[in-house]
Design brief:
By secondary structure, the protein is mostly helical. The protein has 21 helices and 12 strands.
């Protein structure tokens, strides 16, 4: 085995790429990049009833959106079943595994007897040392590993430290089912070995699996990869992460308007830290990431923190890049395709011009889109209840007067329109806000928007005057 670092992300395609899986993929990717190695992708699709092509597509789509790239082609575990069988037979031939002919009824009786005696319900080794000639006719056997019966199995984990499993607690588990299909425990070991995986970074719910998998590594005389079992993510209340906390698919975070760069930054800080650094570029993450700085305690998912971080990324992202991200999001939103159809070159130029003001007020792309509604609306624009209250008789007169004055100014810009509006307010003995608020209501249909003179500049003379006359 070469010294180059090889990590892997190995999801089961039974649904979307959930947020915990995304973090595991990110940690594997960052560690491989940090060490100049490779990250591989293996789809653990041996559960044929629950694995679907749509779920495989969702996982790959989620990884690509997050900007997590793997090396080589994605590998299907199911397609490697002949190799898994081959290794199981090798173990039988070497005397390190054996065929078990117990029926389901016998196994259940075995478990009941163990429970009655106050012992854990484990397989008792009935066929471990029996002569295969005693095999009953017509029974398809399973293959079980010969687990060590004395001593300890030790995992020196990069996160959890030295974890000791007494071998008396580990039974002779099945590696090949009676139908010839491998168990998850066995397939994972064979795949990781054949793929040259040097470091296994995964959730600490796999820690007990590590002990059983080490037994297979030892039986085959293979080198055990370095293990790092990372704590799971909990909700903000400390309970196990559920949908109400944010245990959603990566696709849901995209649809909620988060930027992949922000989500990457947020996920890397869930369980790993570098001093007090909150905001890290991808290059900084790669240069700093190590396994030693992963904490042992579960991290807590906090939507407010994610939203604030996303707001930072929105403000620091270039206007054109942010507009591209917004347009890329539209196909995933209800009504999004209809909005996309409205964005011609004129509207695109208006959105780009409005972007500095829009992104200052938005923490997500959805909020950005909401703020941009005044540019995506047909005349006469919808005016909400609060804005309508500003367009009373006084407000409508202001709209009419300003339409007349703005229609004739020689040059159209934020500065020139501001001069007209300020002069109008002063002449009428009004505070600027008393003029600007009805103006905003008439032009955007709302009481909040980017700076009103930026709105005027972006809408242009014809649209501005037309909207003021509609409101009046």
């Amino acid at each position: 085995m070469s010294d180059a670092v090889v990590t892997r992300f190995a999801p089961s395609p039974t649904g979307f790429l959930h947020i915990g899986g995304a973090r595991t993929a990110l940690f594997n990717w960052l560690y491989a990049k940090a060490k100049g190695g490779r990250m591989l992708l293996r789809i653990e699709d041996t559960d044929r009833e629950r694995s679907t092509p749509a779920a495989v597509d969702a996982i790959i789509d989620g990884l690509m959106w997050l900007g997590i790239e793997w090396d080589g082609d994605a590998i299907s575990q199911y397609e490697r079943a002949p190799r898994h069988r081959e290794v199981a037979e090798e173990l039988v031939a070497a005397g390190r595994a054996y065929r078990c002919y117990c029926s389901q009824a016998e196994l259940e009786t075995m478990r009941e007897t163990a429970r009655a005696a106050g012992r854990p319900p484990r397989y008792d080794g009935t066929w471990r040392d029996r002569d295969p000639s005693e095999a009953p006719a017509g029974v398809k056997p399973t293959i079980r590993i010969k687990a060590p019966q004395d001593g300890e199995t030790v995992i020196d984990d990069q996160v959890q430290g030295r974890v000791v499993f007494p071998n008396k607690d580990l039974d002779d588990f099945i590696i090949l089912r009676s139908d010839g299909n491998p168990t998850y425990m066995h397939a994972v070991v064979v795949d990781d070995h054949d793929m040259g995986v040097t470091h296994i970074v995964r959730g600490d719910d796999h820690l007990t699996n590590a002990a059983r998998q080490k037994i297979i590594y030892d039986a085959m005389g293979w080198r055990l990869p370095v293990m790092a079992h990372i704590p799971l993510i909990h909700g903000s209340d400390g309970a196990k992460l559920s949908k109400r906390h944010g245990a959603l698919g990566v696709d849901a975070y995209r649809a909620m308007g988060y930027l992949p760069s922000a989500l990457r930054n947020y996920l890397v800080r869930l369980g790993w830290s570098h001093g007090d650094a909150e905001i890290l570029s991808t290059d900084e993450m790669v240069s700093l990431f190590d396994l030693a700085s992963i904490g042992r305690s579960p991290s807590r998912f906090d939507f407010a923190k994610l939203e604030n971080l996303n707001g930072h990324y929105m403000r620091s992202t270039g206007d054109a890049e942010l507009l591209a991200a917004l347009e890329a999001l539209l196909p995933y939103l209800p009504g999004g395709p209809a909005i996309a159809a409205r964005i011609d070159e004129t509207v695109r130029a208006q959105l780009l011009a409005a972007m500095p003001g829009l992104k200052e007020r938005a923490k997500t792309l959805l909020e950005l889109l909401d703020g941009a509604q005044f540019l995506l609306s047909d005349r006469p624009i919808a005016i909400d209840e609060k804005a309508q209250a500003l367009l009373d008789a006084t407000g409508r007169k202001i709209a009419t007067d300003l339409a007349d004055q703005l229609e004739n100014i020689p040059e159209w810009s934020a500065a020139s329109t501001e001069a007209v509006v300020r002069a109008y307010a002063e002449t009428g003995g009004l505070k600027l806000g008393k003029v600007a608020q009805p103006l905003r209501a008439a032009l955007t249909g709302r009481t909040t928007s980017p700076g009103i003179f930026d709105v005027l500049a972006v809408l242009g003379r014809d649209e501005t005057v037309a909207r003021l006359r509609d409101a009046a």
